[in-house]
Design a protein that fits this description.
CATH architecture: 2-Layer Sandwich
Number of domains: 1
CATH topology: Defensin A-like
Strand order of the largest sheet: 1-3-2
Strand content: 25-35%
Shape: elongated
Structural class: alpha+beta
Helix content: 10-25%
Oligomer: single chain
Number of helices: 2
CATH class: Alpha Beta
Length: 80
């Protein structure tokens, strides 16, 4: 089983992007998560500082109350 398949909720990534404004920083954060294979993403923090933006993005594997992946997959461990 791949590591991403063992994530119960979400994965946060924080990065400092060289960019012109906050909106560009947010777009870069969203693009990064797409490149990493996340399709359900939120920007949870973004702040300009000097030549760019510090951005924290969250890629959801399972949102609260969703049909959890570990319950759908055959042979998965359910009682951890």
């Amino acid at each position: 089983m791949r590591a991403k398949e063992r994530i119960l909720d979400a994965c946060d990534i924080e990065a400092f992007f060289l960019c012109d404004d906050i909106e560009e920083g947010k777009r870069l954060g969203m693009a990064l998560m797409g490149e990493l294979g996340f399709s359900d993403v939120d920007v949870v923090f973004c702040e300009m500082a000097g030549p760019g933006a510090r951005v924290r993005v969250r890629g959801y594997v399972n949102r609260p109350g969703s049909a959890y992946t570990w319950q759908r997959e055959e042979g998965a461990v359910h009682d951890r």
